[in-house]
What we know:
This is HNH domain-containing protein. This protein has helices spanning 15-27, 37-46, 91-97, 135-143, 148-170, 175-187, 196-204, 207-218, 224-236, and strands at residues 66-69, 86-89, 119-122, 125-128, 239-240. By secondary structure, the chain is mostly helical.
Amino acid sequence: MIxxxxxxxxxYLKEEKVKELxxxxxxxxxxxxxxxxxxxxxxxxxxxxxxxxxECQLQIEDSYMEVEHFKCKSLYPDNVVDWxxxxxxxxxxxxxxxxxxxxxxxxxxxxxxxxxxxLSIENYYLYAKGGEDSKGQKTIDCLDLxxxxxxxxxxxxxxxINRDMIKLARNIDDIILxxxxxxTTLQLCQPDKAFSAFLAFxxxxxxxxxxxxxxxxxxxxxxxxxxxMYETCKKIALDxx
Length: 241
């Protein structure tokens, strides 16, 4: 999970339209008033086509987006099409959260809070900062973010980062190959990639990363593009437990 920016709301959600859709939902709570092309497109864009919670890729086979209501629509019908209450979610996370009352049981909203404040990583599992009764732990438990299938998917993509770093370290004397290789690896750890919080963490905590960075600095090959991607990794990577 990484910090996200919602951006401007869709033109479709003008004030009068919001009122109209809200009243329609209140009259018939089976009405899916939030299922509109503009709403879906804007939500997907805001999260780089990823689930706002688990960061899995959306709009691919077996992983399509569902519009998630942070304040559940059954308890808070007035927020049913409130732009700030809508999140892009995978089916798994949406079902796990279900009708949780986030007012009574607060969890992380990545559009409003930085998950780095609440979560840390160890061995591809998430751990809460602040103990068993913390917002981080409630988020992990509610969304089942340490589900074994999810952890396995994360492990598999992070394994590729470690493999790539081993190859670069073995070819440290081929400075151009190393420069191009670290650029490619950094690109794979940016916010638009699935599980980017884990990928960035893996890269930054790989023992060869600092060595390769220093070699490139010494050879005047650590340029602004590499540094920008590296700093972005530092921004989104969760802390080590």
